[in-house]
Amino acid sequence: MAEEKRLIYLDNAATTKTAEEVVEAMLPYFTEHYGNPSSVYRFSQKNKEAITKARETIAEALGAKTEEIYFTAGGTESDNWALKAAAEAYKDKGNHIITTKIEHHAILHTGQWLEKQGCEVTYLDVDENGTVKLEELKKAIRPTTILISVMFANNEIGTIQPIREIGQIAREHGILFHTDAVQAFGQLPMNVDELNIDMLSASAHKLNGPKGIGFLYIRKGVKIRNFIHGGAQERKRRAGTENVPGIIGFAAAVKRAMRTMEARTAKERELREYLIGRVLLEVPYTRLNGHRTNRLPNNANFSFQFIEGESLLIMLDTDGICGSSGSACTSGSLDPSHVLLAIGLPHEIAHGSLRLTLSEETTKEELDYVVESIKKIVERLRSMSPLYEDFMRRQ
């Protein structure tokens, strides 16, 4: 049984707790500084200035220019904007987009929608670690290729992509390069110039900021159409009254993430290694998914043979442990993860997956409790599995 009121939250890839200093920064913009930044009087103009400062903070974290940051409602919107607007703006040059089979559904479903509009989309395979093969990327390029979109790091298995090399290939061929950095921004240092990135998506709630606010970085000179019509906000490219508290909160979260990144990610890495080591050693017939070391600092993704991931999650929840079997956006789906299938796992093993994503608040003592809980649950589920029984009989 679960310990009384115990909660061990290990689903930080789905969302993070909003940091206290972020909430404090946001509060005045709900009740004191509530003016609409588009209004001309001083009361509202102060909010316009606050948005500019927030934009500066975020741009600085990326090595970007202030006017290259466009606020959105989150990573999904930013991904949609990058693909749809690029396809429209560059249709005279071509209609071919290259992405990968392991992208977030915000990219994959947008790609499928664009195919119905007459675009051609190549979905690259990845290796067994979930890494893009650069030679295959080069081979996929056509004279009509207008955009390459590859995520910075995978939301399920944590593998970090060779972004600099991909950006270089895109630059050499005169192709736009977009990266979905929703999981990586705030976890990994990044500079858009050094990495040859033309567009980048990010979301505040993945780095202890509020939900409902994100941004799309668009390099100056990139020809991108307006995404939402109806007003002059975001330099006429994304209409709608700005989410001032969200923008202020996002900047506060970015400031905090940059300040704490080195120590925070070092701690997460150490705990991640401890967790991976114990699970692989103490739970037989288990594999780690994703690159062993070149992965997000806080990500551990396992597949346990002979069990169903959904059953494991429900029983972990009974023990007060929050985990995931994949991306939060697909947790209602009983299909195996498209990411795990793309790295070559058979359906039955992909079904038995568990993603645990740590935070700076995670403790070793909590992970010990989690490992013991996993051992007990996996043993129980396997004891009910005819497949496991048959397998053991043959050993």
The major sheet is characterized as: 7 strands, mixed
Approximately how much helix is present in the residues? 40-55%
Structural category? alpha/beta
Task: Tally the helices.
Answer: 13
In total, the number of strands is 12
- Order of the strands making up the biggest sheet: 2-8-7-6-5-3-4
Topology as H/E string? EHHHEHEHEHEHEEEHEEHEHHEHH
Mean pLDDT: 95
Global morphology: globular
Radius of gyration: 22 Å
Question: Could you explain how this protein is built, in words?
Answer:
It is built from 13 helices and twelve strands. The protein has 395 residues and is an alpha/beta fold. The protein has a seven-stranded mixed sheet, with helices on both faces. Helix 1 runs antiparallel to helix 8 (244-282) and helix 4 (75-89) packs parallel to helix 5 (105-116). It has helices at 20-26, 28-31, 42-62, 75-89, 105-116, 134-140, 163-172, 244-282, 309-318, 338-342, 347-350, 364-383, 386-394, and strands spanning 8-9, 69-72, 96-100, 120-124, 145-149, 176-180, 199-203, 214-218, 286-288, 299-304, 321-322, 353-357. It starts with 7 loop residues before the first strand and ends with a helix.
